[in-house]
Amino acid sequence: MIRRIGLILFLLLLLIVPLLPSYYLTMGSYIGLYSMVAIGLVLLTGVTGLTSFGQAAFMGLGAYTSAVLTTQLAWSPWLTLLVALALTMLVAFILGAITLRMGGHYLPLATIAWGISLYFLFGTIPLLGGSTGISDVQALNLFGLELRDERLFYYLIWAVCLVALWISTNLLDSREGRAIRALKGGVTMVEAFGASGLRLKNIVFIYSAVLACLAGWLYAHMQRFVNPSPFGLNQGIELLFMIIIGGPFSFWGAISGAAVITLLKTFLQGILPKLIGQSGNFEIIVFGIIIVAVLQWMRGGIWTLVERLLPPKENRPVTDSSDLEMRTQPRHGTLLLKVDDMSKAYGGLMAVKNMSFEVSSGEIVGLIGPNGAGKSTMFNLISGEIPRSGGSVQFESHIISGLHPSQIARLGLSRTFQHVRLIPGMTTLENVMIGAYLRTHDGIFQAGLRMNKAADERVRAEAAHQLRRVGLEESMFLPAGSLPLGKQRIVEIARALCADPLLLLLDEPAAGLRHLEKKELAVLLSDLRSSGLSVLIVEHDMEFLMNLVDRFVVMEFGEKLAEGLPHEIRSNPAVLEAYLGGV
Amino acid sequence: MDLSTILILSQDAFTSGAIYALLSLALILVFGVTRVVFIPQGEFVSYGALTLASLQLGVVPGTVWLLLILACLAAIMETVRLLLSGAVRKLPRSLAVILGPPLMIAVLVKVCAPMHLALGWQILLTMLLVMPMGPLIYRVAFRPLADASALVLLIAAVAVHFVLVGLGLLFFGAEGVRTPPFSDAQLTLAGLNISGQSLWVYASSFVFIGLLAWFFSKTLYGKALRAVAFNRNGARLVGISPDQAGTLSFALASIIGCLSGVLIGPITTIYYDSGFLIGLKGFVGAIFGGMASYPLAAAGAMMVGFSESFSSFWLSGYKDVVVFTMIIPVLLWRSLSTIHYEEEE
Amino acid sequence: MMAERLLSVRDLHVSYGKVEALYGTSLNVDRGTIVSVIGPNGAGKSTLLNALMGVLPSRGTVEFCGNDMGGVSIESRVAKGLCLVPETRELFAQMTVEDNLELGAFTRYRRGDKNIRKTLEMVYSLFTRLEQRRTQFAGSLSGGERQMLALGRALMSQPTLLMLDEPSLGLAPLIVKEILHTISDLRSTGVSILLIEQNARAALQISDYGYVLENGEIALEGLSSQLANNPRVIESYLGIGGGEGS
Description:
Radius of gyration of chain A: 28 Å
Oligomer: heterotrimer
Number of helices of chain C: 11
Strand order of the largest sheet of chain A: 10-11-12-7-13-14
Radius of gyration of chain C: 18 Å
Distance between the termini of chain C: 36 Å
C-alpha cells in the first residue's frame, strides 16, 4: 500500500514539475534522459555484474546519427531513430562479443577506449561539425504535433523513461530475467539449466546501449543541436556514478541517482568556482570523493535507505495447477547413461583415469570413494562442465561428451552443485523457477511487454509444486540465502526437479543435513525412483547411501576400485582398505 | 615516405613506447597484487612533470598540498578506525607513521623550492613528493575495499581518477608546461639526429625495467609481491601481508608514474589532465599482456608507440582514435587466445 | 610431569552465515606432541584449522604460547610460530620449488634471521626429491611432490605448531607412508603438530593424543593408542557398521 502511494506521489511530482519555472523543467528533462541511461546501467552493473563507462558514447551515437541524417539528408527523425538503434546494437554486439568471454574488467576497459575514440571522432570529422557541432537539428513531429515546446518534450521524455522502466522491470521478472539475475554468481549454474551465459550478457549489454542511444536521440531533438562534449568519457563516468550513488541494484536507485547527480552538479558548478576563485569543473573532485565513500560505507546507494523504510513487497499467491508438458521417462531398466573409458588429466595429474560405468533407468547409483578420489571431477565430466581428456559419455542414444552443459541439460540431465549455487537475494521460489528455463520459450520481447504472463504463471506453479514435493513450501517466499545450508541443498534438488529431468545428478546432497533431515531426503529420493526417475549420487555419508542406492561405484585415485550391490561393497576388502588405510 | 622519415618516426615511437612500457608494468603489478585496475596511474605522470616544472621556476609545487591533503585524509580515517576498534593506544604511533614522512617531505620541498637546485636534485625532490601518494591513495581509497569485487575496485579507481584530475587543476591550473631537456646534446648516427632527451628516456627505461626484473626475480620482497599476485591465500599463509604488498605495489606505481612524467616532460607539453591519456596507452599495452605478462605488455606498449607515431604522420587528427581503437583487435586476439574461464565472486 | 601447554582452544564457534559449523569445540596441544583430529567428512575438521589460523572468523578463545589470538591477523600468527598446510596446499604454482621454499621463510627474513639457508638445506635433506627439482615450477610437480613442497615450505618458517590438513589426500599408498613417516620424525626436531586425517588408523598410529570430531563437536578424546582400539572410532569415521572394525 505504502509502495503504491509512493508511486503515485512520484507520478504527481513528475506532473507538477512543468508548472514550475523553466529552469526546473530543463532539470526535469535532463533527469529523465539520464534516468533512462541509468536504468540500463543498473541492469548491466547491479544486476549482471558487468559495467560500462561508454554509455555517454552510445548516447552520442544516437544523437549524432540522427543529427547528421536529419540535417544532411533531411530524413525523418523517426527513420533515423531506427538507423541509430541498429548502429548502436551493432557496435554493442561487437564490443560485447569481443570482451564478454574474458574477465569482468575487459568490458569496462574496452568501453573507456571506445568512449574516447568516439569522442575524438565527433570532434575531428568535418562532416560531424568538429568541435562546434551540428545545429538546426529537426524538431520531432508526433502525430502532426511539432514538439518545439519544452513542456511537451518533457512529457515525451518521461513517457519514454517510464515505459523503459516498465519494460525493464518486466524483463527481470521473466525466464530470461531470472537467468540474467543469476549471472553475477558465474555462468555455470544457468548453463547447467540450458541458458547461455554469454548470450544473456550480450543481450543485457545491447539493451543498456539501446536505452542510452534512445536518450541520445531524444537529447538531439530536444536541444536541436549536438556537439561532442556531452558525450565524452567524463559524462560516461558520471552516468555510472549516478547508479552508484542512487543504488545499483534497483531501477528506482537509478532514477534517484540521476536526480541527485544532476542537481548536485548544477549546484556545485554554481558554487565551487566562486569558492575557489578559479573556473573549472571542480565538481568532479566532490563526485569522486562521494563515490569512494559510498563504495566504502553504503554499497547499496541511497535507495537502500529508502527501501529500509518501505514495507516488504507483498507476495503474489501461487496458482495450484501446473500443466507444463512433461517428458515420458524411459522404460524401467533401459540403459540411460554409459560412461566409457573417461579420463581427465590436470597437467601431469590424472584426476580421472579410464572410468567406465552405467546407469539404467529407474536406478539410484552411488558414486563413492575417499576424499580426492576424483568423484566430483567425474561428475563434472558427465555434466560437461569441464572438458575431458579422453573417453566418451552416452546419454540415451546421444553422445554427450564434448557437448556444452546447456546442450546436455536440454537432453534431460539435471544436477545439483557441491558448493551450493543459489542466488541468495532471490526468493526460494524464483531460484527453483530457474530450473524450468527450458520448459517455456518466451523471449526478451515477450517478457518486456508482459506477454509471457500465462507461461510464467505455469512455471511458478510448477516451482511451487517441486518445493512442496521436497518439503520446503513454507520457505517459498524467503530469500534463498536466509535458509540453512542443508536446506539450500534441498532447494537445489527442487530446482533440478523443476527441469523435468530423466537423470538427476546429485553432488553431496546430504552434507550439512541433520539425522532426521537425511532420513526425509532418503524417502524423497526413493519416491523419485518409484516415479521412474534415475539418480546418480556422489556422497560421503555411507550410512545414508547404504539403504538407499541400488548399486555402488567406488573410486580411488581417479580409477574404479569396485562396483556392485551395497552388501558386496560393504564387505569388499579393497574398499575397506581404501577408507581405513594404515601405515 | 622516405627512410629518414621512417627513422625519425621510429625514434619517436621508441621514446613514447618506452614510457608506455614502464606504465604498463606498473599497471600489471598493481592489478596483480591488489586486483585494482589502476586508472589514475597517468595522474602520477602529470604530477611528476608539473612538479618538476614548478621546482624549476623556484615555486613550491601544488603537489605539496596534495600530499598533505592525502596524508590528513589517511590520518582521519585511521583515527576513526582505531577509535571504533577501541585501540586508542596505537593512535600516536599510527599517526606519526602516516603524517610524519609527508610532513617532513613537504617542509623539505618548501625550503628547497626557491633555491633553484641542480636538475638532479630537483628530480629527486619531485620523486620524494610524488612517491608517497601511491601508498596513501591505496590506504585511503582501496584498502578499506579489500574484500570488494574487481568491478567495485575499478569504479573506485575511476572515482580516484576524477579526484586527482580535479585536484591537479586546482593546484596547477590549466596551463601546460614543458620542462627543459636533461641534456642538449644531439647525437648524429648514420645521418639521423638523436636528441639527448631520447637517449635519456631509452637509458632510464632500460635501467629501470632491468631493476624491476632484478627486484622481482632475485629479492625476496619482489618474489613476495609476485606470490601475492599468483596466490593471495598462499601468500597470507607464509606470512606475507596483502596490505603491505599492496602498499609496496602502489609505491612502485607512483615511482614509475613520476619517473615517466619527468622523462616525458621535455618531449611534450603536459597539462594537469594529460597523464590520463598517457596512462591509458599504457593500459593498451597491459591488456596486450593479458594484465599478467610483463614482457608481452612491454611489447604491446612498444606497438602502441609505433602506431601512435606513424598514425600521427598519416592521420594526424586521428592519432588517438587509432591508438584507442587498436584496443579492439588486441582484445579480440586476447579473447581468442584466452581459455574461457569462470569468474567466481 | 605436566607438559607445557602450547595451544589451548576453549569453546570455539564458527559459522558460515547462519549455519554453525563448529559449536563449542575445545582442545589442547602440548609442546613436543602430535595431536590428531579425526572424524567423518563434513564434521568441521578443516573449519577448525582454518579458524585456528585466522582464515575464518570465530568466537571463543584461542591461546597460543599463552597469548590470546583474538583479532590477530593470519600474517601475525605465522610470525608467532603458527603454520597451516591447508587441504588445497596453496603453493605458488608459477614459481620455482626453491622460490616457494624461500617464501616459506618470509617472516624470518623480515626479522633478519640469518639461518634461512641452513633450514633450506635441512628441508632438502628431508625431501631429496625437492632438491632435484629446485628450479622446476611448483605447478609441474606430481601430487606427492607437491605435498612435500607444502610441508617443506611450512617447515621453512620454523613453526612452533604445524597444522596439517589431510596430508595424505589423493596420494598413492606408498607416498602416504613416506609422508606420514616424515611427519612423525618431525617431532624430534621440536615441532608440535596438529594433524587432521581421514586416514584415521594412520593418524592414530603416529599421534600421541587424538580427538574425534563429529557434527561440529568433539565426540571422543583420548590417548591415540586407546582411541585406535575403540570400535566406535572406526564406526563413526567409516560409517560402514560391521566392517573389519568390529
